[in-house]
Amino acid sequence: MNLDDMAARLAELGHPTRLQILKHLMKAGYSGTPVGDIQAALDVPGSTLSHHLSRMMKVGLIRQERESRTLYCFSNYDAINEVINYLMDECCVNDERCG
């Protein structure tokens, strides 16, 4: 993953509402969560939630699937692990105490 793509993911996580959305989806695990449940849990207007979900999908942090009339959101664990690995990749390389 290139630096610009990683910076875009981190920028999206830098917004409090989007961070709350991701934490909510992480709690749901692989089952995902209906958009309506996210809206109710976070108490945000539908249009605001849609905006935040769209931004998170654009950088690959989440995905959506429709099942009948319900739209579900899911964490993209591969993308989230890429962010974590990027941040930890060179942890302590210049600190000889970390051996």
Explain this structure.
With 99 residues, the protein is α+β, with helices and mostly antiparallel strands. The protein is 58% helix and 14% strand. It has a single domain (3-87), classed as Orthogonal Bundle (Arc Repressor Mutant, subunit A), CATH 1.10.10. The chain contains five helices and three strands. A three-stranded antiparallel β-sheet has the order 1-3-2. The protein is elongated. This is HTH arsR-type domain-containing protein.
What's the SSE blueprint?
Layout: H1 3-13, H2 16-28, E1 33-34, H3 35-42, H4 46-58, E2 62-67, E3 70-75, H5 77-88
Antiparallel strand pairs: 1-3, 2-3
Domain HTH arsR-type: 1-95
Protein name: HTH arsR-type domain-containing protein
GO molecular function: DNA binding; DNA-binding transcription factor activity
Tag the structure with descriptive keywords:
single chain; about 100 residues; alpha+beta; Arc Repressor Mutant, subunit A; three-stranded antiparallel beta sheet; 3 strands; about 15% strand; elongated
Strand adjacency order, main sheet = 1-3-2
Average pLDDT value? Answer: 94
Largest sheet: 3 strands, antiparallel
Quaternary status: single chain
Q: Summed up, what is this model?
A:
By secondary structure, the chain is α+β, with helices and mostly antiparallel strands. The chain contains five helices and three strands. The chain has one domain (3-87): Arc Repressor Mutant, subunit A.
